[in-house]
Amino acid sequence: MLALQPRPLAADPIRVEAAAPTPLAGAAVPAAVDLDIRGMVKSFGEAKPVLNGVDLAVLRGQSVALIGANGAGKSTLLRCCLRLIEAEGGSVRLLERDVRRLAPRDLRRLRARVGFVFQRHNLVPRLSALSNVVHGAQARHAGARYWLHGLAPKAVREEAMHCLDLVGLPHIARQRVDSLSGGQSQRVAIARALMQRPQFVMADEPVASLDPNAGEEVMGLFSDLMRREGLTLLFSSHDLRHAVDYADRIVGLRAGRVELDGPARAQDFAGLREIYG
Ligand SMILES: Nc1ncnc2c1ncn2[C@@H]1O[C@H](COP(=O)(O)OP(=O)(O)OP(=O)(O)O)[C@@H](O)[C@H]1O
Ligand SMILES: [Mg+2]
């Protein structure tokens, strides 16, 4: 079994073929690259750059866990990919679009194709679970009809119900989100992301605010759904067990660079922990 090796700090071209997801292994046609980050640089103010030449490529259908110590730049990296914050150097190709050169309208279109799940679910607390899932359709349609489930077209309501069904929560559709447990809320957030019909999902510590059992359950469900729908997934986590169990590949950030990159099945926890050293 391969062990994950820390990558040297010096620039080192990424070898995506070594980390191809299992279903694609041995395929004659190379898998498409859904995300290709080259030389990303991002700093805040005068401080040392948080990201200082990050190279990372993610293949279509692959599930990649991003690990690294607090402050390593995981959230910054995810946000820069969608220009929720602006990187100051490097290039990002996401779903075949050159992100850093996109005009605002094209950027909005690209963001609509990418689901984003946050640690804190960012649902609207006083609205029902179903209305919150309907909001995912705003990625495709504009207007007040996509704010409340009662106003939404029947087909959209039915699709939102289907998404709630996928996360195992059809019975709480009419319940206000502020009355749900943390695990249920996070499932609703996942249903909302699915409602976007995304091609790529980014998740920033999607289960970090959940207790261990709920975290395990939601992460398992999330990862199964991504695989079943054939979506590409990039998620950050401090849970090494989740990284090993639910990703095809683990990427570690340290000192502003990708310092570790390898197949998750290696399960070398000692090697993984070095990223926090
Ligand atoms: N808006 C901001 N203004 C100034 N500094 C910021 C800002 N956002 C992030 N930083 C700094 O950038 C660094 C990386 O932060 P980031 O949140 O990306 O780390 P992280 O790897 O996600 O950490 P964690 O595991 O704690 O979530 C930290 O030092 C943080 O203080
Ligand atoms: Mg973070």
Write up what this structure looks like.
It is a single chain. A hairpin with a 2-residue loop joins strand 4 and strand 5. Residues 1-22 have low confidence and may be disordered. The chain is built from eight helices and ten strands. It is globular, with a radius of gyration of 19 Å. Helix content is 29%, strand content 21%. The longest helix has 17 residues, at 212-228. The two termini are 24 Å apart. The protein has helices at 74-81, 104-112, 129-134, 154-166, 182-195, 212-228, 240-246, 269-273; strands spanning 33-42, 51-59, 63-67, 89-94, 97-98, 114-117, 200-204, 232-236, 249-254, 257-263. It is α/β, with parallel strands linked by helices and 277 residues long. Strands 6-7-8-3-9-10 form a six-stranded mixed β-sheet, sandwiched between helices. A four-stranded antiparallel β-sheet has the order 2-1-4-5, with helices on one face. Bound molecules: adenosine-5'-triphosphate (ATP) and magnesium ion (MG).
